[in-house]
ECF RNA polymerase sigma factor EcfG
Amino acid sequence: MTSTEFSSMVQKISKSLKPVALNLTRDADDAKDLVQETLLKALLNKDKFKAGSNLKAWLYTIMRNTFINNYNKITKRSSNIDSTEYFQYFNTDENYIAKNGAVYTFVVSDINEAIAHLNEEYRTPFMMYYIGFKYLEIAEKLNIPIGTVKNRIHIARKELKQVLKIYELNG
């Protein structure tokens, strides 16, 4: 199957993904994000799809797994961050303390410093998203368009990744 054929088939099926995503997320914006992320993963991993198998089921599986992974990330974030204060970056929960306390201290310090050095217009939406606010809630609280919120969070992540690339895992 060529890339064009695959893309065409995915595009035809993509319309049926939105109701399922909406059922999972219970939020229109999150459903759109989930569908978009599902389609991106499908297109990036088209070589893993076996021609002749059920493409729709494959896409639903990608969507379900993506939703579960995102849900787990959000609940993990929410449980480790004090949401009463936007910029309290990390709790000192014993489950997350490295065996080498000095290394842990340096890592947390570097992360906090990198976040503190973000431009305020990127840091605020990033931290709000980090502690569990949805894109729409951030847009409403900051009185900016949702697309701007997504863009600022993306830029903040990109800048943090660049600054903290010394901690990148190899392999």
Remarks:
- The two ends are 31 Å apart (CA to CA).
- The helical segments are 3-14, 17-25, 28-44, 55-80, 101-116, 120-130, 135-142, 146-163.
- The CA atoms of residues 113 and 146 lie 27 Å apart.
